[in-house]
């Protein structure tokens, strides 16, 4: 437990420092590229393949490729937007995959490498873009994801009876999902009331986008859990003592970040000042 707490404190300190300690984009840029590389390495190791030294080298190469694509998308904004759209389409498809598991697992094939390349690159570029709009918007995204996860955990432990996806993540319950949703609705209402000056229609649209982001974060968590279960692996990696791998920490953000970034982009397109 102490190891887990220390790791969490270090992670929070690093992320918050990159977010708020300087106006320079380079610390956050480096953090995103490094995270993309580590996540890509872990993703490859979850794919169907033989376990060998050669496979580890391939995983390292895939991590470098993921970091390179992310860096390219961070430089060329139009590429990032294309990745977000492709990512959202893949997440829509994943709803069927999660719902049909384990009866259907045809998605578990070598093409899953391309899926990971898109999802990870889309997520890190989306996180960087949201941070670029304002570090506080990125903090809001984190609060949505953390609030949903924490609310679901505590409510699920006390009241959870009906399983949300028993074959994918047996500990998650429908009651926990409702608890997480109530938690984030409180966060959303507080932010809207105290920090946003919007029309009623725009308030409702912002609320809708935020709730969709929350549901997508749950999907991201379930999807990574399903891949790990299919691969027969408990944690995606061991780079974070007490927490597993990078993918274990950002699984919810893989889905939530691109959707939130697109939502902010759409709001700005229609003239909503956020």
Walk me through the structure.
It is a single chain. This protein is mostly helical and 274 residues long. The chain has helices at 2-20, 26-45, 53-75, 77-100, 112-133, 135-159, 174-195, 200-231, 246-269, and strands spanning 163-165, 169-173. Strands 1-2 form a two-stranded antiparallel sheet. The termini are far apart.
How would you sum up this structure in a few lines?
A hairpin with a 3-residue loop joins β1 (163-165) and β2.
Topology, element by element:
Layout: H1 2-20, H2 26-45, H3 53-75, H4 77-100, H5 112-133, H6 135-159, E1 163-165, E2 169-173, H7 174-195, H8 200-231, H9 246-269
Antiparallel strand pairs: 1-2
Order of helices and strands: HHHHHHEEHHH
Report mean pLDDT, rounded to a whole number: 92
In quaternary terms, these chains amount to single chain
Outline:
globular
Number of strands: 2
Question: What structural class do you assign from the helix and strand content?
Answer: mainly alpha
Strand content: under 5%
Q: Give the end-to-end Cα distance, rounded to a whole number of Å.
A: 39 Å
Query: Within the largest sheet, what's the order of strands?
Result: 1-2
Instruction: Please estimate the helix content.
Output: over 70%
Q: What's the structural domain tally?
A: 1
Largest sheet: 2 strands, antiparallel
Q: What Rg is obtained from the alpha carbons, in whole angstroms?
A: 18 Å
What descriptive keywords fit this protein?
274 residues, mainly alpha, two-stranded antiparallel sheet, 9 helices, 2 strands, 77% helix, globular
């Amino acid at each position: 437990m102490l190891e887990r707490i220390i790791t969490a404190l270090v992670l929070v300190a690093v992320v918050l420092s990159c977010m708020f300690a300087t106006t320079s984009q380079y610390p956050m840029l480096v953090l995103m590229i490094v995270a993309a590389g580590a996540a890509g390495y872990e993703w490859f190791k979850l794919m169907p393949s033989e376990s060998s030294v050669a496979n580890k080298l391939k995983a390292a190469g895939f991590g470098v490729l993921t970091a390179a694509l992310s860096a390219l998308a961070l430089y060329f904004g139009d590429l990032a937007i294309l990745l977000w759209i492709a990512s959202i389409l893949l997440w829509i498809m994943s709803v069927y995959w999660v719902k049909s598991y384990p009866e259907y697992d045809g998605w578990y094939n070598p093409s899953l490498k391309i899926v990971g390349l898109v999802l990870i690159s889309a997520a890190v570029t989306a996180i960087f873009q949201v941070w670029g709009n304002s570090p506080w918007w990125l903090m809001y995204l984190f609060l949505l994801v953390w609030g949903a996860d924490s609310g679901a955990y505590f409510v699920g432990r006390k009241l959870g009876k009906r399983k949300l996806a028993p074959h994918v993540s047996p500990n998650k319950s429908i009651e926990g999902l409702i608890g997480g949703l109530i938690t984030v609705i409180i966060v959303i209402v507080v932010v809207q009331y105290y920090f946003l000056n919007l029309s009623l229609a725009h308030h409702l649209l912002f609320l809708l986008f935020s709730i969709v982001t929350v549901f997508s974060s749950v999907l991201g968590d379930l999807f990574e859990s399903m891949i790990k279960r299919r691969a027969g692996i408990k944690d995606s990696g061991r780079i974070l003592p007490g927490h597993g791998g990078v993918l274990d920490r950002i699984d919810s953000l893989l889905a939530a970040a691109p959707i939130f970034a697109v939502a902010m982009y759409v709001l700005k397109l229609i003239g909503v000042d956020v």
